[in-house]
Design a protein that fits this description.
There is one protein chain. By secondary structure, the protein is α/β, with parallel strands linked by helices. It contains ten helices and 16 strands. The strands form four sheets. It has a seven-stranded mixed beta sheet, with helices on both faces. Strands 2-1-11-10 form a four-stranded mixed beta sheet, sandwiched between helices. A three-stranded parallel beta sheet has the order 12-13-14.
Protein backbone atom coordinates (compact mmCIF):
# COMPACT_ATOMS: atom_id res chain seq x y z
CA UNK A 1 0.00 0.00 0.00
CA UNK A 2 1.33 3.44 -0.96
CA UNK A 3 0.30 6.07 1.56
CA UNK A 4 -1.03 9.35 0.16
CA UNK A 5 1.70 11.24 2.01
CA UNK A 6 4.40 9.03 0.48
CA UNK A 7 2.93 9.57 -2.97
CA UNK A 8 2.79 13.34 -2.47
CA UNK A 9 6.47 13.40 -1.44
CA UNK A 10 7.41 11.45 -4.58
CA UNK A 11 5.27 13.69 -6.80
CA UNK A 12 6.77 16.92 -5.47
CA UNK A 13 10.36 15.67 -5.55
CA UNK A 14 9.91 14.90 -9.26
CA UNK A 15 7.98 18.07 -10.11
CA UNK A 16 10.86 20.44 -10.94
CA UNK A 17 14.17 18.72 -10.22
CA UNK A 18 16.32 21.78 -10.96
CA UNK A 19 14.11 24.09 -8.91
CA UNK A 20 15.16 25.60 -5.60
CA UNK A 21 14.04 23.54 -2.62
CA UNK A 22 15.86 24.57 0.59
CA UNK A 23 18.00 27.58 1.33
CA UNK A 24 20.52 26.96 4.10
CA UNK A 25 23.33 29.30 5.13
CA UNK A 26 22.69 31.36 2.00
CA UNK A 27 22.99 28.46 -0.46
CA UNK A 28 20.17 26.67 -2.26
CA UNK A 29 19.68 22.90 -2.48
CA UNK A 30 17.59 21.66 -5.42
CA UNK A 31 14.67 19.26 -5.36
CA UNK A 32 16.82 16.84 -7.38
CA UNK A 33 19.51 16.82 -4.68
CA UNK A 34 16.89 16.23 -2.00
CA UNK A 35 15.18 13.57 -4.11
CA UNK A 36 18.35 11.63 -4.97
CA UNK A 37 19.33 11.30 -1.31
CA UNK A 38 15.74 10.60 -0.25
CA UNK A 39 15.47 7.72 -2.73
CA UNK A 40 18.73 6.21 -1.50
CA UNK A 41 17.56 6.41 2.11
CA UNK A 42 14.13 5.01 1.25
CA UNK A 43 15.66 2.05 -0.58
CA UNK A 44 17.89 1.28 2.42
CA UNK A 45 15.16 1.50 5.03
CA UNK A 46 12.11 0.04 3.32
CA UNK A 47 9.24 -0.31 5.80
CA UNK A 48 11.44 -0.72 8.88
CA UNK A 49 11.93 1.68 11.77
CA UNK A 50 14.81 4.07 11.25
CA UNK A 51 16.16 6.31 13.96
CA UNK A 52 17.28 9.72 12.68
CA UNK A 53 19.51 11.96 14.78
CA UNK A 54 17.76 15.04 13.52
CA UNK A 55 19.37 18.42 13.24
CA UNK A 56 18.08 21.31 11.14
CA UNK A 57 20.12 20.51 8.06
CA UNK A 58 18.97 19.87 4.48
CA UNK A 59 20.49 16.37 4.41
CA UNK A 60 18.40 15.46 7.45
CA UNK A 61 15.27 16.76 5.72
CA UNK A 62 16.16 14.47 2.80
CA UNK A 63 16.61 11.53 5.21
CA UNK A 64 13.24 12.24 6.82
CA UNK A 65 11.51 12.39 3.43
CA UNK A 66 13.35 9.27 2.29
CA UNK A 67 12.01 7.13 5.13
CA UNK A 68 8.50 8.51 4.63
CA UNK A 69 8.44 8.05 0.86
CA UNK A 70 9.35 4.39 1.38
CA UNK A 71 6.66 3.72 3.96
CA UNK A 72 9.00 3.28 6.92
CA UNK A 73 8.80 4.80 10.39
CA UNK A 74 10.99 7.71 11.43
CA UNK A 75 12.08 7.33 15.04
CA UNK A 76 13.07 10.80 16.20
CA UNK A 77 16.34 10.93 18.14
CA UNK A 78 17.35 14.26 19.65
CA UNK A 79 21.18 14.50 19.55
CA UNK A 80 21.06 17.70 21.62
CA UNK A 81 19.59 16.17 24.77
CA UNK A 82 23.04 15.36 26.17
CA UNK A 83 25.39 12.59 25.12
CA UNK A 84 24.62 10.18 27.97
CA UNK A 85 20.85 10.53 27.60
CA UNK A 86 21.04 10.09 23.83
CA UNK A 87 23.25 6.99 24.10
CA UNK A 88 20.80 5.49 26.60
CA UNK A 89 17.91 6.32 24.27
CA UNK A 90 19.65 4.67 21.31
CA UNK A 91 20.41 1.54 23.34
CA UNK A 92 16.85 1.23 24.64
CA UNK A 93 15.28 1.68 21.20
CA UNK A 94 17.15 -1.31 19.73
CA UNK A 95 16.72 0.02 16.19
CA UNK A 96 17.69 -1.83 13.01
CA UNK A 97 18.88 1.37 11.28
CA UNK A 98 20.22 4.68 12.60
CA UNK A 99 20.80 7.70 10.37
CA UNK A 100 22.76 10.81 11.25
CA UNK A 101 25.89 12.80 10.61
CA UNK A 102 29.10 10.78 10.84
CA UNK A 103 30.08 12.92 13.84
CA UNK A 104 26.86 12.20 15.75
CA UNK A 105 26.95 8.49 14.92
CA UNK A 106 30.52 8.16 16.19
CA UNK A 107 29.76 10.02 19.40
CA UNK A 108 26.27 8.77 20.21
CA UNK A 109 26.00 5.29 18.71
CA UNK A 110 29.56 3.92 18.84
CA UNK A 111 28.67 0.34 19.81
CA UNK A 112 25.26 -0.07 18.21
CA UNK A 113 24.26 -3.29 16.49
CA UNK A 114 22.18 -1.27 14.05
CA UNK A 115 23.10 -0.54 10.47
CA UNK A 116 24.33 3.05 10.49
CA UNK A 117 23.87 5.47 7.61
CA UNK A 118 26.05 8.60 7.68
CA UNK A 119 24.63 11.56 5.75
CA UNK A 120 27.00 14.51 5.60
CA UNK A 121 26.29 16.12 2.24
CA UNK A 122 24.78 15.79 -1.21
CA UNK A 123 27.97 15.29 -3.21
CA UNK A 124 28.62 11.75 -1.97
CA UNK A 125 26.24 8.85 -1.33
CA UNK A 126 25.52 7.94 2.30
CA UNK A 127 28.16 5.85 4.07
CA UNK A 128 26.56 2.58 5.17
CA UNK A 129 27.99 0.29 7.83
CA UNK A 130 26.01 -2.93 8.07
CA UNK A 131 25.15 -4.03 11.58
CA UNK A 132 23.83 -7.28 13.00
CA UNK A 133 20.55 -6.09 14.49
CA UNK A 134 17.66 -8.51 14.34
CA UNK A 135 14.97 -8.17 11.71
CA UNK A 136 12.48 -5.39 12.41
CA UNK A 137 8.73 -5.75 12.01
CA UNK A 138 8.37 -1.98 11.81
CA UNK A 139 5.36 -0.05 13.02
CA UNK A 140 2.86 -0.43 10.15
CA UNK A 141 0.98 2.76 9.39
CA UNK A 142 3.15 4.89 11.68
CA UNK A 143 5.05 7.65 9.89
CA UNK A 144 6.88 9.20 12.84
CA UNK A 145 7.51 7.90 16.34
CA UNK A 146 7.81 11.35 17.86
CA UNK A 147 9.03 12.54 21.24
CA UNK A 148 6.54 14.71 23.08
CA UNK A 149 7.66 18.05 24.46
CA UNK A 150 7.55 16.83 28.07
CA UNK A 151 5.01 19.36 29.30
CA UNK A 152 3.43 16.91 31.75
CA UNK A 153 6.50 14.81 32.54
CA UNK A 154 9.48 13.19 30.84
CA UNK A 155 9.18 13.20 27.01
CA UNK A 156 7.56 10.02 25.72
CA UNK A 157 7.08 8.63 22.23
CA UNK A 158 3.75 8.77 20.45
CA UNK A 159 2.63 7.42 17.10
CA UNK A 160 2.00 9.93 14.32
CA UNK A 161 0.35 7.90 11.58
CA UNK A 162 0.59 8.46 7.85
CA UNK A 163 -3.13 9.22 7.73
CA UNK A 164 -2.86 11.77 10.54
CA UNK A 165 0.04 13.66 8.96
CA UNK A 166 -1.54 13.52 5.49
CA UNK A 167 -4.70 15.14 6.81
CA UNK A 168 -2.66 17.76 8.68
CA UNK A 169 -0.69 18.92 5.64
CA UNK A 170 -2.94 17.94 2.71
CA UNK A 171 -6.44 18.41 4.11
CA UNK A 172 -9.25 16.12 5.27
CA UNK A 173 -9.63 14.46 1.86
CA UNK A 174 -5.94 13.69 1.48
CA UNK A 175 -6.54 10.45 -0.45
CA UNK A 176 -8.08 12.45 -3.30
CA UNK A 177 -6.09 15.69 -3.02
CA UNK A 178 -4.38 16.55 -6.30
CA UNK A 179 -0.64 17.09 -6.28
CA UNK A 180 0.66 20.55 -7.24
CA UNK A 181 1.58 21.01 -10.89
CA UNK A 182 4.02 23.89 -10.29
CA UNK A 183 6.33 25.02 -7.53
CA UNK A 184 4.89 27.70 -5.29
CA UNK A 185 6.39 31.15 -5.76
CA UNK A 186 6.57 32.22 -2.13
CA UNK A 187 9.39 31.06 0.14
CA UNK A 188 8.56 29.95 3.68
CA UNK A 189 10.82 30.09 6.72
CA UNK A 190 11.25 27.00 8.91
CA UNK A 191 12.95 27.74 12.21
CA UNK A 192 11.26 25.08 14.37
CA UNK A 193 13.52 22.16 15.35
CA UNK A 194 12.99 18.96 13.38
CA UNK A 195 13.07 16.96 16.62
CA UNK A 196 9.74 18.60 17.56
CA UNK A 197 6.43 18.08 15.83
CA UNK A 198 6.37 21.74 14.75
CA UNK A 199 9.48 21.30 12.63
CA UNK A 200 8.29 18.06 11.03
CA UNK A 201 4.84 19.57 10.37
CA UNK A 202 6.23 22.72 8.71
CA UNK A 203 8.66 20.78 6.51
CA UNK A 204 5.93 18.37 5.38
CA UNK A 205 3.53 21.27 4.78
CA UNK A 206 6.10 22.99 2.53
CA UNK A 207 6.73 19.74 0.64
CA UNK A 208 3.01 18.98 0.27
CA UNK A 209 2.52 22.48 -1.21
CA UNK A 210 5.69 22.26 -3.36
CA UNK A 211 6.90 25.38 -1.58
CA UNK A 212 10.63 26.19 -1.25
CA UNK A 213 11.74 27.23 2.20
CA UNK A 214 14.58 28.67 4.20
CA UNK A 215 15.81 26.25 6.88
CA UNK A 216 17.39 27.88 9.92
CA UNK A 217 19.57 25.77 12.26
CA UNK A 218 17.61 27.39 15.10
CA UNK A 219 15.79 30.67 15.69
CA UNK A 220 18.43 33.39 15.57
CA UNK A 221 17.16 36.93 15.23
CA UNK A 222 19.57 38.22 12.57
CA UNK A 223 19.28 35.13 10.34
CA UNK A 224 15.50 35.19 10.64
CA UNK A 225 15.28 38.91 9.88
CA UNK A 226 17.59 38.54 6.88
CA UNK A 227 15.38 35.76 5.51
CA UNK A 228 12.25 37.87 6.05
CA UNK A 229 13.78 40.83 4.20
CA UNK A 230 14.97 38.64 1.31
CA UNK A 231 11.86 36.55 0.76
CA UNK A 232 9.05 38.67 2.23
CA UNK A 233 6.86 35.75 3.37
CA UNK A 234 3.22 36.64 3.94
CA UNK A 235 2.95 34.44 7.04
CA UNK A 236 5.51 33.43 9.65
CA UNK A 237 5.38 31.32 12.79
CA UNK A 238 7.05 32.44 16.01
CA UNK A 239 6.91 30.65 19.35
CA UNK A 240 6.31 33.11 22.22
CA UNK A 241 9.99 33.38 23.17
CA UNK A 242 10.96 34.17 19.57
CA UNK A 243 8.07 36.61 19.20
CA UNK A 244 9.29 38.49 22.26
CA UNK A 245 12.81 38.63 20.81
CA UNK A 246 11.42 40.22 17.64
CA UNK A 247 9.19 42.54 19.67
CA UNK A 248 12.06 43.88 21.78
CA UNK A 249 14.55 44.14 18.90
CA UNK A 250 15.46 47.13 16.75
CA UNK A 251 13.47 45.74 13.80
CA UNK A 252 10.97 48.14 12.25
CA UNK A 253 7.73 47.90 10.30
CA UNK A 254 9.76 48.27 7.11
CA UNK A 255 11.86 45.19 8.01
CA UNK A 256 8.71 43.08 8.36
CA UNK A 257 6.79 44.82 5.61
CA UNK A 258 5.82 41.70 3.63
CA UNK A 259 4.36 39.83 6.61
CA UNK A 260 0.58 39.86 6.87
CA UNK A 261 0.13 37.55 9.85
CA UNK A 262 2.12 35.87 12.62
CA UNK A 263 1.00 32.59 14.16
CA UNK A 264 2.19 31.58 17.60
CA UNK A 265 1.86 28.37 19.56
CA UNK A 266 3.69 25.67 21.59
CA UNK A 267 3.54 27.78 24.78
CA UNK A 268 1.25 30.43 26.29
CA UNK A 269 1.50 33.90 24.77
CA UNK A 270 0.26 36.80 26.85
CA UNK A 271 -2.34 39.13 25.37
CA UNK A 272 -0.06 42.05 26.29
CA UNK A 273 2.78 40.68 24.14
CA UNK A 274 0.44 39.95 21.22
CA UNK A 275 -1.09 43.43 21.41
CA UNK A 276 2.34 45.09 21.72
CA UNK A 277 3.59 43.19 18.65
CA UNK A 278 0.58 44.28 16.61
CA UNK A 279 0.95 47.88 17.77
CA UNK A 280 4.66 48.01 16.91
CA UNK A 281 4.59 46.20 13.54
CA UNK A 282 0.98 46.48 12.41
CA UNK A 283 0.77 42.68 12.10
CA UNK A 284 -1.97 40.61 13.79
CA UNK A 285 -0.86 37.70 15.97
CA UNK A 286 -2.98 34.55 15.74
CA UNK A 287 -2.52 32.14 18.62
CA UNK A 288 -3.00 28.42 18.05
CA UNK A 289 -3.29 25.27 20.11
CA UNK A 290 -1.55 22.08 19.13
CA UNK A 291 -0.11 18.97 20.70
CA UNK A 292 2.41 16.41 19.52
CA UNK A 293 -0.22 13.68 19.75
CA UNK A 294 -2.36 15.43 17.11
CA UNK A 295 0.40 15.84 14.53
CA UNK A 296 -0.41 19.52 14.02
CA UNK A 297 -2.69 22.33 15.06
CA UNK A 298 -6.05 21.71 16.69
CA UNK A 299 -7.54 25.16 17.15
CA UNK A 300 -6.58 28.74 16.38
Amino acid sequence: MVHSLSQRIDDVLALAPAGRAIQFDGDWVTWEQIGTLAHRIGDLVGTARAGIMLRNRPVHVAALLGVLRGGGTVVVINPSRGDDRTRSDVEALNLPIIIGSSEDLAALAPDTAATTVAVDGFDEPPTVHRGNASDDAGRPGVAVWMLTSGTTGPPKRVDLTYDMLARSVMGPDSDHDSAPTDLRRGVAIVNSPLVHVGGVFRVLLCVAEARPFVLLPKFELKQWADAVREHRPRAVSLVPAALRMVLHSDLTREDLDGIRVVTSGTAPLSADDADAFTEKFGIPVLTSYAATEFGGGVAG
